């Protein structure tokens, strides 16, 4: 794991499934999308207009920075594209428009951010 952290909490990632039936995989993907929309849609609707503080925005940008690091250092598709002379604009299109880095950043003990980092460093069954 990059920086001894998982990439986040929850979610799904699957790869190297060439030995599986394509129709079953497609049905699995459709089922996932339906469930994400049903489960996550109401959460987004409830909180989409919530206010946030500058400190919370800074944290979001720092997490985006971790995403950028992972993509540029480990992501097979990104690395393949960069090494084979692919279109840079297309390869980097998935990166966030804004991100942030701070040297040796530490979260405040007992904060939601510290709890998040703890969960990323110590994965558990939820």
UniProtKB/TrEMBL annotation:
<dbReference type="GO" id="GO:0005737">
    <property type="term" value="C:cytoplasm"/>
</dbReference>
<protein>
    <recommendedName>
        <fullName>coproporphyrinogen oxidase</fullName>
        <ecNumber>1.3.3.3</ecNumber>
    </recommendedName>
</protein>
<comment type="subunit">
    <text>Homodimer.</text>
</comment>
<comment type="similarity">
    <text>Belongs to the aerobic coproporphyrinogen-III oxidase family.</text>
</comment>
<dbReference type="GO" id="GO:0004109">
    <property type="term" value="F:coproporphyrinogen oxidase activity"/>
</dbReference>
<dbReference type="Pfam" id="PF01218">
    <property type="entry name" value="Coprogen_oxidas"/>
</dbReference>
<dbReference type="InterPro" id="IPR036406">
    <property type="entry name" value="Coprogen_oxidase_aer_sf"/>
</dbReference>
<dbReference type="InterPro" id="IPR001260">
    <property type="entry name" value="Coprogen_oxidase_aer"/>
</dbReference>
<comment type="pathway">
    <text>Porphyrin-containing compound metabolism; protoporphyrin-IX biosynthesis; protoporphyrinogen-IX from coproporphyrinogen-III (O2 route): step 1/1.</text>
</comment>
<keyword id="KW-0560">Oxidoreductase</keyword>
<keyword id="KW-0627">Porphyrin biosynthesis</keyword>
<dbReference type="GO" id="GO:0006782">
    <property type="term" value="P:protoporphyrinogen IX biosynthetic process"/>
</dbReference>
């Amino acid at each position: 794991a990059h920086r001894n952290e998982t990439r986040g909490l929850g979610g799904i990632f699957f790869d190297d499934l060439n030995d599986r039936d394509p129709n079953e995989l497609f049905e699995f993907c459709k089922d996932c999308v339906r469930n994400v929309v049903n489960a996550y849609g109401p959460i987004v609707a409830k909180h989409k207009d919530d206010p946030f503080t500058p400190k919370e925005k800074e944290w979001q940008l720092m997490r985006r920075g971790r995403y950028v690091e992972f993509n540029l250092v480990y992501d097979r598709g990104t690395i393949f594209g960069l090494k084979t002379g692919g279109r840079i604009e297309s390869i980097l299109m998935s990166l966030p428009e804004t991100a942030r880095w701070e040297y040796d950043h530490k979260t405040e003990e007992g904060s939601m951010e510290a709890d998040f980092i703890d969960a990323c460093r110590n994965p558990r069954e939820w």
